[in-house]
Amino acid sequence: MLFSTGESVKISREDALRVAGLAHLDLTEAELATYQEQLDSILTYVDKLNELDTRDVEPMAGGRPLAFDSATPEDSSLREDTPRTSAVAERAISFAPDPATTSSGRYFRVPKVIDR
Amino acid sequence: LSAKKVSARELTDLFYDRIKKRNPELNAFLALSPERAYAQADRVDAMVSRGEKLPPLGGVPVAIKDVISTRGITSTCGSRILENYIPPYDATAVEHLEAAGAVLLGKTNCDEFAMGSSNENSAYGPVRNPAALDRVPGGSSGGSAAAVAAGLAVAALGTDTGGSIRQPGALCGIPAMMPTYGRVSRYGLIAFASSLDRIGPFGRSVEDIAEVMGVLAGPDPNDATSVRDPVPNYAEAARAPVNGLRIGIPREYFGEGMDPEVHKNVQEGIALLERLGCKRVSLHMPHTDYAIATYYIVATAEASSNLARYDGVRYGLRVPNGPLLATYKKSRGRGFGAEVKRRIMLGTYALSAGYYDAYYLKAQKVRTLIARDFIEAFRQADVVVTPTSPVPAFRLGERTADPLQMYLADIYTVTGSLAGVPGISVPCGKTSAGLPVGLQIFGPHFGEATVLRVAGAFETAGGFTLN
């Protein structure tokens, strides 16, 4: 690999397992080993950002740097927060993996949450 | 059409015939929508027979990237996890196209959730480049680019997060535009990285791009990041002369790793712009080299958050595995492909406790520095001109082994994505092997008209067919 330092230091197997847990990803042992190695290589490359002094730099928070934006304030203003009717919900539920109809309405049905 | 030489229905027939012939080898389309297409064609034909003036895209056959929602037509995002997903509403961009008379032919293949630079990450197989079938079309909007390049659609919508419109445009040899962040509504675009994602057009000419941009641009109450700035007449801009405009050439975009033939073509393209009366200005954009590292932290962090919604409950694939949490994990582990899981892992790590400041916050600060490079550049120049991709179309499988190698295909496009500025890729001749080369033109925020002006003049002067 182009940017690999050859030594795996940033990500251990335990780190990779922890991250997979946070991300709700069920990974095979082989996937876990591959991602551990690749993430290590990518994060080593990303270390180059530390060459830059950013102590006095504001982080960007959206898709455009607002301080330099040509858009006037009212251009970026928000719409009125008024309720509107939407016919989407009924159609959305009908495409769910396991839709349920009860006397009180239609719902998404999920597997048992608590095992006892 | 208005001259009644051909009806919209006949035109639609013609394009479906072409798709039927070419799509088996190109794999550009994932779904066709003939019912919707013919209904629209008949509406246009009725207007013609009543002698009404046709809207700007009346009867024009278009294709839509599969990450853009289309009511009643599958939108898989190139992923198994959304294999049977049928959106309950249309994206605003799709509504605009149809209101302007466009005929929606179908949905195009792409890298899964728009993550990739070669279209090899689609769960439904790679797209092939019409210019060379053993090569990639670029990505992630590879299907849209290939469809227009092969004449299977007159125009197409793609999405660009780090280069996903411009790079496949370059590799397939057609013009392709990423508008300013906020210029075109993202409502109905299935999110990858919300602060970077943009919808934009592929076309056969700059004039076509300008027409489609005029239809797409504008505010949308359903996208709070869209802006109300007036929309200029892009088609007029694309025909305006360019003498006296200052074209900025940043030295950082002509470094090592660039294919020598790409370098030669782009230099000839710049020389052509000078002959048209543009003034060349040398620029220094010192943070260019940090863009890939910045992008792959910001984009993956946002992706890890956006893709958390795919849990096998509300839509898409569910792989039963006992209780709820185990079902989430199994559904996501099976439903997502390798690149998507890699980016979710990277983004989750960058946002996780103890690492947020070191990675995500740091990257967002460097992003400000990259945006400042552009602000400074546009004090000295009207547009910034660079290559679109360091290399022409590569062979299928050539770059899949090393993710970082693949990420570097975006080295000249991610900068503009991070800064939020508009950019277009226009064809700039071919290599000796006949592979298309792209010239990239960036403009300041909401400077689409200037970008189209330079692109239009370049095309008219024969820039597309250099050498």
Tell me about this structure.
The complex is a heterodimer of chains A (116) and B (467). With 116 residues, chain A is mainly α. Chain A has helices at 13-22, 29-46, 88-94, and strands at residues 99-102, 105-108. The N and C termini of chain A lie far apart (48 Å). Chain B has 467 residues and is α/β, with parallel strands linked by helices. Helix content of chain B is 38%, strand content 13%. In chain B, the strands form two sheets. Chain B has a six-stranded mixed beta sheet with strand order 5-10-11-9-7-8. At the A-B interface, helix 1, helix 2 and helix 3 of A face helix 9, helix 10, helix 11, helix 12 and helix 13 of B.
Residue runs with pLDDT of under 50 for 5 or more positions of chain B: none
State the share of residues found in helices of chain B, binned by percent.
25-40%
Shape of chain B: globular
Widest sheet, order of strands of chain A: 1-2
Structural class of chain B: alpha/beta
Q: How many angstroms separate the termini of chain A? A: 48 Å
Shape of chain A: flat
What letter string, H or E per element, gives the SSE order of chain B? Answer: HEHEHEHEHEEHHEHEHHHHEHHEEH
- Please identify the structural class of chain A as seen in this structure: mainly alpha
Oligomer: heterodimer
Extended strand count of chain A: 2
pLDDT average of chain A, as an integer? 81
What's this, in brief?
The complex is a heterodimer of chains A (116) and B (467). Chain A is 30% helix and 7% strand.
Main attributes of the structure:
heterodimer; A: 116 residues; two-stranded antiparallel ribbon; 3 helices; 30% helix; B: 467 residues; alpha/beta; six-stranded mixed sheet; five-stranded mixed sheet; 15 helices; globular
Please give the structural blueprint.
The complex is a heterodimer of chains A (116) and B (467).
Chain A lengths: L12 H10 L6 H18 L41 H7 L4 E4 L2 E4 L8
Antiparallel strand pairs in A: 1-2
Helix pairs in contact in A: 1-2
Chain B lengths: L7 H19 L2 E4 L1 H16 L11 E5 L26 H8 L3 E6 L33 H8 L5 E6 L5 H7 L3 E3 L19 E6 L2 H11 L17 H4 L8 E5 L9 H16 L3 E5 L7 H16 L17 H12 L2 H14 L5 H24 L2 E5 L15 H5 L6 H6 L3 E8 L5 E7 L5 H13 L7
